[in-house]
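Issue 218. Parser rejects a valid record. Input:
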Amino acid sequence: MDNEISYPPTYYLIHLVDEEAIKVLKLYDSQSHGRHDYVMASRKQWQNASEATAYGLKLAQQHGLTFKHDRSVDDESYRESMLLD
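Output the parser choked on:
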């Protein structure tokens, strides 16, 4: 039996993929997955970072999670979130 403790996802964030597209990712914390191990929350891709941010915010809200903005991908939305906090 596997004794690994696995936790539900805690963050959604956006990440550049192949420097051309953006995907929404889900972040897991567990004994075998560090904070840099990501699982895809969606296979949808966007060319526009603000669309991916909006989708990530929607997913996080639906699942009661925290959305973490990636300033290197969507600086405008990141700055907006800092003003709202």
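Fixed in the parser; the record now loads. The chain is about 30% helix and 20% strand.
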